[in-house]
Amino acid sequence: MVLLDGKETSKKIQEELKEKVDQLKKEGKKIPHLAAIIVGDNGASLTYVNAKVKACEKVGFESTLIKLSESTTEEQLMKRVKSMNENPDIDGYIVQLPLPKHINETKITMAIDPAKDVDGFHPENVGRMALGMPCFLPATPAGIMELLKRYEVPTEGKHCVVIGRSHIVGSPMAMLMWRNELPGNATVTITHSRTQNLKELCLQADIIVAALGKAEFLTAEMVKEGAAIIDVGITRVEDTSKKSGYRLLGDVKFDEVAAKASFITPVPGGVGPMTIASLMINTLKAIEMKELI
Amino acid sequence: MVLLDGKETSKKIQEELKEKVDQLKKEGKKIPHLAAIIVGDNGASLTYVNAKVKACEKVGFESTLIKLSESTTEEQLMKRVKSMNENPDIDGYIVQLPLPKHINETKITMAIDPAKDVDGFHPENVGRMALGMPCFLPATPAGIMELLKRYEVPTEGKHCVVIGRSHIVGSPMAMLMWRNELPGNATVTITHSRTQNLKELCLQADIIVAALGKAEFLTAEMVKEGAAIIDVGITRVEDTSKKSGYRLLGDVKFDEVAAKASFITPVPGGVGPMTIASLMINTLKAIEMKELI
Q: What are the Cα distances from residue A54, in Å, to A14, A25, A60?
């Protein structure tokens, strides 16, 4: 069994990006600049955004963090978005979700210039991905594809079962896996809450992507010997033995599934760190995307 | 076995659309106006375009057919596209594909205003479809969904195997079938040229959508008793007994598969006529889409 070490891979990607930034500096070229807008004081969101900004600094990108108060109106946020679109110094930016309830998330996402949409959430980027055109890929599926590539997990002609059809993980994951590219070229089954024979389908899978958000849902009896397992889930469960008071569980019952798997991602340290690495890759790409979108 | 009669259903849809147009006329509202641009003298393309324009006339839409010579430059076509985008009288339009080789199809498709893109080929419409937002659905998959709906073919929790991953049929078909809507909510497997165990997968399917373009590919031994069969293929094969000198074959070996199927589309007269009906539905929708895209 090979552990798909997202933490280590993410570090390596960040080192590679740092080298590229150093090269850009040497050549006197523009350094990628990522901005992030966060509205309100959601603790988890602040942690995520800070991690993104910190990662930017580490690879040598320029970064800007804009913190707006919970009472920011939709109109005020829209103005910020427009000024981001118009600012030639900002190559890519994200608006951290979720937004406070009085702001329409779809409206805000739609207002982001697709050429600066490093989260890849704008419909134009989603459509470009589906059509195999140049685009920003959504961070989590892109991070998984990067892991599959770097660990040379076989995908061509393999049967990949995706559990979950969310817009940010399950659906794009399915599309990337069936694309006529490598990694990809897999036969893909997408399953969800209405699926009737999930166990039977999982038992046929050469690759399983678990992205349903239920702690330790995927057990050994659902997995074929030698399957590759990607665990996107991350659930906090109370654990008084930990200093933090909780521990993180994935969607996969790790120990028993690992015993049957050919490849498996741990939680934490698997898909999670790859998500930030993907965002950094998208930011580097943002400069050339200006010409392509 | 129920025959999914696309010809009859398409007629019925066109009657319904005619009633709606009559209603719009009574209310003094704008009548939907579809334009079609065709470049060159490709016989099949001319037949398709003429059928579309004729269908428009039948339901009472306004229509404009612009025929441009084979020697039209990309720049000249681009000018036409821009004038279509700007013309407030045109609600929706299509540029008939394929285009002559000296014109970049992607560039032209990208230039079409997504709010007038009744073919649903622009990445913004593809992305909106993937995200479940208001959009123009591509005609063939939308026509199939309409057939499934009108014949009440069960889809929720059913296993749908799609054969083929093309951008205009297989991929969007998969996305529509897994959506959290009815028809839809199916478990979906997308298969293609690299799939290794197609027969085994097809034998599990409650619904098969055959869209690979190989005459009579799907045989009875690949189909489970009681499955619903959608045949998107259309291949001309020589037949001296016919006046035309050819007959049309689908991707499904009709007679033997029909004997096992619960529902099946014939070729011709199944999916084909639904494609034009979908385009008409999109054209009617185009007036309200101005506000939504």
A: 12, 19, 10
What are the angstrom distances between the C-alpha of B159 and each of A77, B181, B184, B224, B231? 43, 15, 10, 11, 17
- Are B187 and A187 inside 8 Å of each other by CB? no
Q: Mutate one of B97, B124, B176, B199 to test the A interface: name it (highest A CB count within 10 A).
A: B124
Q: Given B133, B178, B191, which is nearest A190 (Cβ)?
A: B178
Considering the domain boundaries, does residue A21 fall inside one? no
* pTM of the predicted protein model: 0.96
A186: in domain: yes
Strand order in the sheet with A92-95: A62-68, A33-39, A92-95
B145 with B258, same domain? yes
- Reported ipTM: the value is 0.95
Whether A159 and B194 lie within 8 Å, measured CB to CB: no
If asked whether residues B143 and B95 sit together in one domain, one would say: no
- Condensed to tens digits (0 to 9), the pLDDT of residues B108-153 reads 999 999 999 999 999 999 999 999 999 999 999 999 999 999 999 9
User: For position A137, what pLDDT does the model report?
Assistant: 98
Looking at the structure of chain B, the number of domains it has is 2
Range of the domain at A64: 28-114
Distance CA B207, CA A90 (A): 48
Residue B232, domain CATH: 3.40.50.720
If asked whether residues B177 and B99 sit together in one domain, one would say no
Nearest CA to A32 among A276, A292, A289? A289
d(CA B286, nearest CA chain A) in Å: 19
